[in-house]
């Protein structure tokens, strides 16, 4: 719950500007952008995610550092579990791996 | 201690540790509180204590939301979920936290419909997909998670989803710091401020600590270098006789916070007159209740809440540990009756609780070293 997980915006949902497909290493899930209304991220931007909501925009370098911090804290698995659990772990909400075609939720 | 060469910029880490030794006045004893449980975890995991001189003492603060939740609130939440057709949804962190008659996970084993969710929006999704049940989201957390709960409630209202409610246990960090500073047995010199809470609230709310109490505070990131640099910034202030709010974590924390998140909080929540914190007692205006406009989605108004109050076991000294008066291992139950496998106090449940962090990194290290016949 208290983990800040870095993710890269892949695509903003065409029918909902508050919903984005985000890649955390190879796990892809829908994340809520509703708390970044003042500074909307675009595809390619990095964000820090708390409990399924993007809370701040960060640089690619800081995202990399944050991933390294999670690794050193022994929290990488917990972060992956959390991200995989978004959308109740429903694979139709996201894909694992970067080559599959994304279905919209 | 972890090997320093595993850290990012290991040479800079060593130079920063040297700078700390140079700045620390050997005739003084510094008591610095890290407010956030994430920092507590990082400090133990990285063995940062070993890089600091002995006269800098790190005191672990109240910033672990699972740890400060009184057992009565868990009992209340579980009591509401006893009713038929209720789904109890909560973050995984809550699942092993003991209530009087067991944890949510043990209630699940006895037949209660308990679901782990990783996001409040997934609790709302459960309500959409289970229209004949009522989904109660047991919400916990500081300002890092409260805006997400707020936005989820705004969506529930906008969509008219009526089989969903939130049992709010959200708390706010500033009144807890104030309560600790007001406590007569606490003597602190400075604060390492929480990083992720501050992405939401910004740096301005800490200015009262500077004005009223004349204590320096540095908002810090979570890497070893971040925490050590924050200690340098605090020591520089203390040496110069200054007290101001500084932001070491500028790359993530904007001075003004996150306006959209603050707006969502203000729309949905208001301050409770008072709220009980485990170990700290009742603190005024320290927690969030749901506003009247969202009463229909407030579990406390949808259902009859028993209002259970449970005193912690007398032998457990969670309160003293939470306030930093005792170190975790100085509690009578630590490592004997109370372990991460069988927690009695909540500080032992979460990896961000100071007892679990101490047990996992310091206690096990000491036990191993003494088994090997070396001095710890």
- The geometry of chain A reads as globular
Quote the CATH topology of chain A.
Answer: SH3 type barrels
Largest interface: A-B, 33 and 47 residues
CATH topology grouping of the largest domain in chain B? Rossmann fold
Largest sheet of chain A, in brief, is: 5 strands, antiparallel
Walkthrough of the structure:
The complex is a heterodimer of chains A (105) and B (376). Chain A is of the alpha+beta class and 105 residues long. Chain A has a single domain (5-88), classed as Roll (SH3 type barrels). In chain A, 22% of the residues lie in helices and 30% in strands. A five-stranded antiparallel β-sheet of chain A has the order 3-2-1-4-5. The two termini of chain A are 24 Å apart. The relative contact order of chain A is 0.24. Chain B has helices at 10-23, 37-45, 71-81, 104-109, 120-129, 146-159, 173-182, 195-201, 207-213, 224-239, 259-268, 299-302, 318-322, 354-371, and strands spanning 30-36, 56-63, 86-90, 114-116, 134-141, 164-170, 190-193, 217-219, 245-247, 269-271, 274-277, 281-284, 288-290. In chain B, strands 2-1-7-8-9 form a five-stranded parallel β-sheet. Chain B has a four-stranded parallel β-sheet with strand order 4-3-5-6, with helices on both faces. A two-stranded antiparallel sheet of chain B has the order 10-13. Chain B is globular and about 65 Å long. Chain A binds chain B through residues 1-2, 4, 32, 34-38, 48, 50-53, 55-56, 58-59, 62, 65, 68-69, 72-75, 81-83, 85-88, and chain B through 2, 6-8, 37-38, 41-42, 45-46, 64-65, 91-93, 116-122, 125-126, 140-141, 144-145, 147-148, 151, 196, 199-200, 222-224, 251-252, 254, 258-261, 264, 351-352.
